[in-house]
Amino acid sequence: MGKGSSPFVHVFKNMDKFYFFDINQHKIVNISEESFNILKDHQEFLNHELYTLQEQGFLSSNRVKVIEHPATEMLEDILSNKIKKLNLQLTQQCNFRCDYCVYSGGYDNRNHSSKRMNWEVAKKGIDFLIDSSKDSSNINISFYGGEPLIEFELIKKSMEYAIEASDGKIVTFSMTTNGSLLNDEKIEFFSKFNIHLTISLDGPRDIHDKNRKFATNNCGTFETVYNNIKSIELKYPDFKKNIQFSMVIDPSIDLNCLNEFVADEEDFFKETAIMGSIISDHYRKEKVEVNEDFISEWQYNKFKYFLHLFEEIPDKNNSQLMRSSNALLIDFINDSSKSYYPLLEKSHHAGPCIPGQLRLFMNTEGDFFPCERVNENSKIMKIGNVVEGLNVEKVDKLLNVGKITEEECKNCFAFRGCIVCAAMADSGDEEERLSKELKEQACVNARRNFEEMLKDACTLKDLGFRSDMIKVSKNY
Predict the structure, then answer these.
(1) Which terms are listed as keywords in the entry (predicted)?
(2) How many CA atoms are closer than 13 Å to the CA of 335, on its beta-carbon side?
(3) Residue 171 pairs with which residues in a beta bridge?
(4) Residues 33 and 78 in one domain
């Protein structure tokens, strides 16, 4: 059978069992070894088991013919009327110097500088969001840095103006902060606007202070941040629910120490979420080193997380960091229980959001980027500015990143589970183009991660985990 006429499935083994993942149905099917070999070798005939599955709608050879995102033809309307969020980079200054920070000099996309946003630019950005969200009843304004609390007066002015100018919309606010500048004045003001804070805290003192230091004296910052949060907990207990923590995990640390800290500080983390992520390699000049002990600890903690889903171990013995890192797995199990339409003739792999719609990022000078994670120095990632608006053609190019690997994408088993966006294909060079080579490297990683997720899903299902248990597990 030719590749285009063969069943569009991905075969794999997990433990001592055999499976295929049906891309059109978005489902995993357990099969016999004989059926596995037939599909693996692209043999012409189907045995009784495979014939029966085919009769049930599996094993279709249907593939996408043209790579194009379904939102492409509606881009102008979406960008004019359906913007949902604006992330304001108030400053590129910070009172910390964190070793892994994207502004630290170890990355290609940013550096600390004295640049700061003035009120005129901030006001124009807020006006742009309101004018470009006619079809969105809820909008969000987020404050970013550097350290945004350095510009507290600008934050206050922006929040008050946004509420006044919002024309009846529900306006919510959020902020990513290192937490060191929080005090009574700021919390009292934020409480009036119900702002949500993401505070960076990497673990106990030794782990946190390893990478997160004050700019002035190179001393650790843990005590300052921890005490500020304890003060909030004591004086403003109702505000605690507005806080979540971001833990950037250094793979050179002892992961068990991090888990013990979270477990021991039960009251400290009560009513908050913890989002864990490993130090990013993206745009990084030097690769992040990961030792085998860390990998073993990570896998063991994932195993404990699986046991926790079955209530085999209590919540306090489960690593909270595993919740966020396995969110895609849980979503996949939930989604695979639903009915899916076959792939459309014209479609695009999962991964890209509509650049600028969900997380529009505006830097200190008023330039627009798809989100805060991309390279601010890259010409391809600059999609407009607050005076001229968004460049639909550039947004189209980023949205349809799959076109640069079109033939590979048409036959990729991770088509609906892809996490690759244009940022992963950005070389940051002077030319306004995306790199096919970088995109292909990202695709290799995406396929590997997706297959691992398929195997994890099989393991959980074989142990009796059901989609109707997911709601319960998410409440923990």
Answers:
(1) 4Fe-4S, Iron, Iron-sulfur, Metal-binding, S-adenosyl-L-methionine
(2) 14
(3) 139
(4) no
- Same domain? 168 vs 214: yes
Sort strands 346-347 and 66-67 into parallel, antiparallel or unpaired: parallel
User: How much is the mean pLDDT over the chain?
Assistant: 92
* Residue 362 placed within a domain: no
Nearest to 279 by CA among 290, 295, 292: 290
- Cα–chain center distance at 116: 26
Same domain, 49 and 95: no
254, 300 Cβ separation under 8 angstroms: no
Contact 65, 345 (CB under 8 A): yes
Please tell me the predicted confidence (pLDDT) of residue 316. Answer: 67
Average of per-residue pLDDT across 104-116? 76
Contact 324/275 with Cβ under 8 angstroms? Answer: yes
pLDDT higher than threshold 50 for residue 422: yes
Q: Residue 465 — φ and ψ, nearest 5°?
A: -75, 135
What digits encode the pLDDT tens for the residues 129-167? 999 999 999 999 999 999 999 999 999 999 999 999 998
Instruction: Check: CB of residue 121 under 8 Å from CB of residue 366.
Output: yes
CA nearest to 64, candidates 435, 403, 450, 424: 403
Nearest partner of 376 among 441, 283, 277, judged by Cα: 283
Q: What is the pTM of this model?
A: 0.94
Q: Is the pLDDT of residue 441 over 80?
A: yes
Domain that holds residue 124: 72-335
Spatial neighbors of 445 by CB under 8 A, at least 6 apart, are none
User: Which of 171-185, 272-286, 325-339, 462-476 is least confident?
Assistant: 462-476
- Picking from 39, 62, 85, the residue at the C-terminal end of a domain is 62
In angstroms, the CA 221 to CA 77 distance is 46
Same domain, 134 and 263: yes
**Residues 449, 452, 456: CA angle, nearest 5 degrees:** 135
Q: How many CB atoms lie within 10 A of CB 264?
A: 12
**473 falls within a domain:** no
- Per-residue pLDDT, 2: 46
Between the CA of residue 174 and those of 303, 305, 325, what are the distances in Å?
33, 29, 22
Q: How many domains does the chain have?
A: 2
Report how far residue 379's alpha carbon sits from residue 267's, in angstroms, rounded to the nearest whole number: 46
